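Thread: 6-O-phosphono-beta-D-fructofuranose complex, take 2
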Amino acid sequence: MSAAERLGTCDVARLFAPPEQRFAEFSREVDGLLLDFTRQPLDTPALEALLGLADASDLPGAIESLFAGEQVNHTEGRAALHTLLRVPSAVSLPTHLETLHREVLAERARCAAFVAEVHAGQRTGATGERFTDVLNIGIGGSDLGPAMAVEALRPFHLGRVSCHFISNVDGTQFADLADRLDPARTLVVVCSKTFTTQETLANANLVRAWLTEALGESAVPRHFAAVSTNSSAMDQFGIGADARFVIWDWVGGRYSMWSAIGLALELAVGSEHFQAFLAGGHAMDKHFRSAPLRDNLPVLLGLLAIWNRNGLGNASHAILPYTQRLARFPAYLQQLEMESLGKSVDAAGNPLQRSSGPVIFGEPGSNAQHSFFQLLHQGSGGVSMDFLLPVTPPAGDRGGSQLAMANCLAQMQALMAGQGPDAVRADLEKRGLDSKAARQLLPHKLHRGSRPMSLLAFRQLDPRTLGMLVALYEHKVFVQAALWGLNPFDQWGVELGKQLCNSLLPALTGKDGPALPAELAPLLGWMR
Ligand code: F6P
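Output below.
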């Protein structure tokens, strides 16, 4: 019998004999971040087999090539050096990375100086007023990471500026904000690695028109900052030399929040907290690079994902934070995981022999309990889960953390232990149901339990811990990619739709353009 057959239908509660031993063997803690995978359908031989797979796939070699700056993103001929963005200034690096690191540090210092000037009121708007609001315009990696982190670290905001994010091409987010923002006190940060992204340019032009209507063209360099690799596009837009920040082609969009793409976050929490966020990421990098595979958090989390996807056949994975502060974390992970792992060919272009990235979805657990948890408890399966739980709230943060904690632990216990026929029957009898009614109701109240899940618990959701968490998931994705043999750093799948959109737009705006695909003609006819 294979490990998957043995464990796929096992009673996970039985693996807890005794619980202390299971916890010792199936949990790891790094710097106050606990990964508890005792509730996964996994035993010692299965864990050893997964670790053997990692060894056989030369995962340590793959990790080294990532950190060494090799061209791991071979379809785009690039390294993936997001780890360099969080290396502190004092760390010495091999010569070929030193030059890049110096550029990173210089840009980091420019961002910190910019933030300090805004906070001190030395950098003002065109009318001399202080900036009170920051509007980040970007999409995908130029939006999701910073937006998630600004929300997650709200107790650490300095209160100098309020940050807002717009991304959707339909313009509604800005329409909702425009009445509340004063152009004279609004600093706009356009984040776009390419500065060609249609949604971002549409929003940037919309906001520019709003701003120049109130303050005139000359206000643009005072009110707009930008982060991009594309200097000529920034020139064209009128971004001043002192308000433009560079990123590099070796930083993937979904890995870029550590760079100047995190400017809105730094403006919200200040440079000291931003540095702590970087330090958390760097601590996780050091751990990932040096810890033995069996004690390595990203490696274990990645192996658990592979076990769930390929061993147990779970095609969906839920992210369930038990704090509202991480409300955008599932959305952030959707891009990180699905844009990285949603591939069907290996690095050499051959079809993958195994299923790759699962569907990622999620919501804060408390709210999700009242929406999709029904399916997690009693649905036909196929979903693995990560619970995320801060154990204490940050100083000064109000909120019922104990209630949230109790809910999280209760849900995990119910999903693991379930409720079998004897317990359901006893409960129904206790409620006074007669035996016929009890018999009819019984199947509806069964919880089969043994649902696969891990818990990530941490003392507090502070900047350093958030940095650790984000880097943990980045590396977890890398582990999956390495074992599946795919390139997690490209995203060719998003291009086709973009091209089609460009060729459809003329038809929708009544202009001449390429012939429409025949399949769309009836629908367009209806829309007219
Ligand atoms: O369309 C996908 C994508 O390329 C993402 O990978 C990226 O994060 C996003 O678009 C935004 O790209 P840019 O930062 O170049 O505007």
